[in-house]
């Protein structure tokens, strides 16, 4: 072979070797991370843990079930052993909030890890999220298939011991679908948020009234007009019960300035309005300023004993941030009974 031929052959081998090395480097770069660089984790599968808003809730979001604020999956007990029915917290000592996490819901599968947080606020409606809510506690949880009951200690419960509670399941694989200032909208659109406002009222016949705090609020950036609505399956008057709303001087004057609008109510004092028919009554046209939340009192009394519980729902209705003109902005279910002296 001539010297020219040998040079051509060596050049061809160099080209082939270079091409092979380039291909090897390309394959290696595609299958191995650089030294010292973290490996990219595979995307986690979507999980879906839900907390029931009402007994028939199966985790669909949004839904039209009512009331949103009486979740059966949130319970308050005086000890670390779960009680049969939720109780009012005892002021000044450690109580326990039990929350049931249900897995899976309709939008995911598999074991889910996250944090369960529980918050409190004054009973009533119109509580702006997160401004009006105070965290009670948080627990890290791994939620396997089925129902996981989580216990959240509630230390040093402040007086008067009557609160609305909300539970939130926060997980990177089970994100919130929507969040805004309206807690009722957040609850309706997220199956990992639940809300419980249930208060037991035990009366003594002919004794002074039992007082409960209640608040109504406006989450909008403009003034709004709101209604306070009372509903019950059975009238308290049939068993000698009585309900009086003490609006306080300012809110009472706003009610009068708005035309003293109401159904089955009557003014009985300088700041008080009696609910004449507690099974179905309302106070209307209550004006609230932007971002305002006003607290007042409900006074319950009984003339005679009645052992069976009567459930009275008191709710605020008004405009919300979704554009609805009349939405349920929250309320409280009062379980009322009167024992013998």
Automatic annotation (TrEMBL):
Signal peptide coordinates: 1-32
Superkingdom classification of source: Bacteria
Keyword terms of this UniProt record: Signal
Name assigned to this protein: CARDB domain-containing protein
Origin species: Micromonospora qiuiae
């Amino acid at each position: 072979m001539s010297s020219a031929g040998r040079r051509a052959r060596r050049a061809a081998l160099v080209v082939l070797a270079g091409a092979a090395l380039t291909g090897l480097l390309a394959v290696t770069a595609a299958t191995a991370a650089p030294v010292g660089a973290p490996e990219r984790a595979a995307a986690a599968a979507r999980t879906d843990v839900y907390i029931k808003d009402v007994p028939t809730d199966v985790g669909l979001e949004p839904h039209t079930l009512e009331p949103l604020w009486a979740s059966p999956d949130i319970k308050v007990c005086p000890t670390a052993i779960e009680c049969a029915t939720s109780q009012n917290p005892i002021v000044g000592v450690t109580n326990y909030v039990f929350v049931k996490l249900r897995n899976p819901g309709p939008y995911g599968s598999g074991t889910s890890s996250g944090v369960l947080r529980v918050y409190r606020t004054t009973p009533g409606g119109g509580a702006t999220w997160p401004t009006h809510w105070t965290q009670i506690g948080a627990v890290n949880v791994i939620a396997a298939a089925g129902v996981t009951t989580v216990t959240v200690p509630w230390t040093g419960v402040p007086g008067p011991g009557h609160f609305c509670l909300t539970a939130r399941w926060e997980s990177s694989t089970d994100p919130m679908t929507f969040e805004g200032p309206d807690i009722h909208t957040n609850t309706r659109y997220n199956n990992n948020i639940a809300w419980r406002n249930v208060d037991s009222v035990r009366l003594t016949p002919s004794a002074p009234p039992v007082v409960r705090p209640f608040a109504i609020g406006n989450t909008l950036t403009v003034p709004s007009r709101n209604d306070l609505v009372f509903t019950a399956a059975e009238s308290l008057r049939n068993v000698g019960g009585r309900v009086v709303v003490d609006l306080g001087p300012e809110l009472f004057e706003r009610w009068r300035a708005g035309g003293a609008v109401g159904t089955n109510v009557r003014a009985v004092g300088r700041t008080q309005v009696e609910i004449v028919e507690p099974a179905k009554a309302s106070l209307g046209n209550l004006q609230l300023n932007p971002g305002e939340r006003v607290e007042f009192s409900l006074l319950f009394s009984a003339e005679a004993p009645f052992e069976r519980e009567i459930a009275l729902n008191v709710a605020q209705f008004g405009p919300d941030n979704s554009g609805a003109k009349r939405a349920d902005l929250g309320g409280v279910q009062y379980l009322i009974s009167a024992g013998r002296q």
